[in-house]
Amino acid sequence: MRSRLVFGLPKNDRDRRIPLPVTVVDALREHLAWCKPVELTLPWEDPFSDERVTVPLVLTTPRKGAINRGTFDAKAWKPAVTAVGLVPTRATGMHALRHFYASALLDAGESIKALAAYLGHADPGFTLRVYTHLMPTSEERTRRAIDDLFEGTRVGPDGLVTA
Which spans in the chain are helix H? Predict the structure, then answer.
């Protein structure tokens, strides 16, 4: 049986809200100036449901249809990876973008709790277990954090701390 497209919430049926960076807003505006959204009506979650939802799609196929997640990887992502000289593997797959996003936020100091919410994880402990290896472990960063904390303070000969 051929797969049928539906609209639905992402993984784990969780609605996700993430802060949209200005660079992404600008890129989206540029895209929308070039390609107008295409209104498409599909079933909600169940391909055989009578419930239909109409959504303006920002990204579509060349024929102005919905992008099938099952064929996007083979027809768009892997050819793009190959075109830039990389070998399509799990490490260069679409899911790697999720890990890239997580590592960028962790490196910038985002909290595990916020990252869990952005990724749709109900338990921040799960997020920590999955992404611990991506957390910065720089000894220099540790030194700098404590130096910044105590910058301008001195311990006098009497053992008292002054600011």
Answer: 22-34, 69-72, 78-83, 95-107, 112-119, 124-131, 139-150
**Residue in this structure with the two tokens 């301008």, named with its chain if needed:** 152
Contacts (Cβ under 8 Å, ≥6 apart) of 11: 120
Residue environment code for 98-134, b if the CB has 16+ CB neighbours within 10 A, otherwise e? eeeebeebbeeeeebeebbbbbbbeebeebeeebeeb
Among 73, 107, 105, 70, which residue's Cα sits nearest to residue 90?
A: 73
CA 87 to the chain's CA centroid: 22
pLDDT of residue 103: 86
Residue 110, classed as helix, strand or coil, is coil
Based on its alpha-carbon atoms, the radius of gyration of the chain, rounded to whole angstroms, reads 23
Predicted local confidence at residue 43, as pLDDT: 94
Cβ pair 18, 118 in contact under 8 A: yes
Assess contact for 128 and 112: CB atoms under 8 A: yes
Amino acid found at 108 = A
Please report the pLDDT score of residue 1 as a whole number: 45
Query: Among 126, 127, 129, which residue's Cα sits nearest to residue 105?
Result: 127
- What predicted TM-score, i.e. pTM, was given to this entire model? 0.71
